[in-house]
Fold this sequence. Notes:
The chain is 59% helix and 18% strand. Strands 1-2-7-5-6 form a 5-stranded mixed β-sheet. α2 packs antiparallel against α8 and α4 packs across α6.
Amino acid sequence: MESLKRFFLLPGQLLGLTLIGLLLVSAIVYYKAVKLQRYLEPTLAIAQPRIDFARDLGLLIEKEFGSKNMKGVVYTGSSIFVDEALLLKGPPKKKIPDMVFIQRLSRIFMSILQDPQLRTQFDLILLSTRLTVSPHLDMNKRQRNETQRKAEFILYSLFTMEPNLEIEYGTYFAAAVVPVEPHKGANWVEFRIIPSEHLHIEMMKSVGKYYF
């Protein structure tokens, strides 16, 4: 019996060891939490301006179209993809702009450009149509010219429906052609919102306190 007693701790000793173990576990958990916080806070500070901008733009799209998941309109946070069939209607050789839809789209761009806070966060709205690349160089060249004219036609249709887009904010828009492989969504028109240098500066300011 005396030999067995040596293998058991007294209640006070057991309590002391338990408290020491709890303290060690708490210290490890606290250390891990501090490391995680120092990683998450600057990451969130970098992402927050883009998160806020994407949220505001998403609300404008939802306000205008009723839903961010409208068929033929896909919003990714930095780009708005629109099915060409919503922008242009009619036979292939005589397509005309759908002025009702284009007017709704122009109101979205007018809203973000008239907001000083949102306007400082991007430098350019790049309207791009897609060119399906083929092995025939001459055909590519001809189709590139046609696709470029289509992009400019859509852009000037926006300006027609909302003249102030061109008068006051024409420097914020550009039209271009993006080559894509066959069957890679050639019928989509992209409105890519390119962030400004001002946004990068604000990001650096927001994370400066974590490193200096």
